[in-house]
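User: Design a sequence. Structure:
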């Protein structure tokens, strides 16, 4: 009998090594079963594996999961996996280090829920997290880790209650990071205009488009083969064989079509938040990631959905204009997110802890 990993690799054109990230026993898993496995409730043991599993559920650019974990004694380190960098959309690795900050925040919250106080330091290019026993401190944010998702869909257009807006703003508080929360329609429209301009620039950039398509997973088997990337159904698109989807992409994935979609998504949102650090360096990008992740978890805990609209900060030529338009002056805007009440969509996959942990 042909091994399913070999079959997937041969059918979809992946190497056997690319498919080896499937967790033990995943040969017979459906997409939904793989999601359920990665997003299972947090367990106390094995501690390091469970903390890493929680960390991998963090937001990250293109779902590249650009991290490597190592655990020694009561210390867990998170290092960048530069093999998973995206040089077209993220040439200075800004998003990569923001993603590491997101993962660190998840790990720290999960550790507290299990009875471990976590102290983190930035060491070179790694985040080193020291754990010491403490009373368990469960929280709504830790509880939201398995169910948080970025929802790329239109929301219902309803405003968020003032107390929820206060919670979202509070969640973003991080030393060296400022959050600008916008709920006025004129302010949201201004952001929308920059999102559309940035999206148009990106879709005319052949290197950006090649990189984006390389991370697209068009069907369940495609996604299960790598346990990463941008699965079509997560964005509300149909699951199709790759040989059908790739030619159709040029017909349906157009600048005008995507701009129309982003306009509808922002018009239907309750608000937009922009995060900006005091300085533009790796330590501050990680701090932005921690604030960004808490925002997503707080939105989830409050019953809201959210997604990233980072085009104005990803297009270097557009970024200073966007910063000036929202009053940031010379500071770099780091992350742009929209939020509101919206539908449930399928959640993305994550590689198992064994695939991202070094001994």
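Assistant: Done.
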């Amino acid at each position: 009998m042909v091994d399913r990993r070999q079959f997937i690799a041969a059918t979809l054109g992946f190497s056997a090594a690319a498919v080896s990230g499937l967790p033990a026993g995943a040969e017979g898993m459906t997409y939904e079963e793989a999601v359920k496995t990665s997003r299972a409730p947090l367990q106390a043991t094995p501690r390091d594996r469970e903390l890493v599993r929680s960390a991998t559920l963090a937001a990250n650019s293109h779902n590249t999961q650009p991290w490597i974990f190592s655990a020694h004694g009561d210390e867990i380190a998170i290092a960048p996996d530069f093999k998973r960098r995206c040089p077209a959309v993220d040439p200075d690795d800004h998003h990569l280090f923001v993603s590491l900050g997101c993962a660190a925040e998840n790990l720290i919250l999960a550790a507290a829920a299990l009875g471990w106080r976590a102290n983190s330091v930035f060491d070179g290019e790694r985040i080193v997290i020291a754990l010491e026993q403490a009373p368990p401190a469960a929280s709504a944010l830790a509880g939201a880790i398995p169910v948080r998702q970025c929802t790329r869909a239109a929301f219902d257009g309803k405003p968020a209650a003032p107390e929820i807006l206060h919670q979202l703003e509070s969640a973003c508080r991080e030393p060296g990071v400022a959050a600008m929360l916008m709920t006025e329609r004129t302010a949201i429209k201004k952001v929308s205009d920059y999102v559309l301009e940035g999206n148009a620039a990106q879709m005319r950039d052949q290197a950006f488009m090649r990189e984006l398509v390389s991370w697209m997973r068009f069907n369940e088997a495609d996604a299960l083969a790598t346990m990463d990337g941008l699965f079509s159904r997560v964005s509300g698109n149909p699951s199709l064989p790759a040989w059908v989807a790739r030619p159709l992409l040029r017909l349906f994935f157009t600048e005008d079509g995507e701009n129309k979609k982003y306009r509808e998504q922002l018009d239907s949102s309750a608000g937009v938040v922009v995060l900006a650090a005091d300085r533009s360096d790796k330590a501050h990008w990680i701090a932005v990631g921690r604030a960004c992740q808490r925002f997503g978890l707080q939105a989830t805990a409050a019953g809201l959905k959210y997604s990233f609209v980072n085009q104005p900060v990803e297009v270097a030529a557009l970024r200073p204009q966007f910063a000036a338009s929202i009053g940031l002056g010379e500071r770099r805007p780091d992350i742009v997110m929209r939020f509101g009440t919206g539908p449930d969509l399928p959640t993305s996959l994550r590689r198992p802890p064994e695939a991202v942990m070094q001994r």
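The first helix runs from residue 4 to 12. Confidence is low (pLDDT under 50) at residues 1-25.
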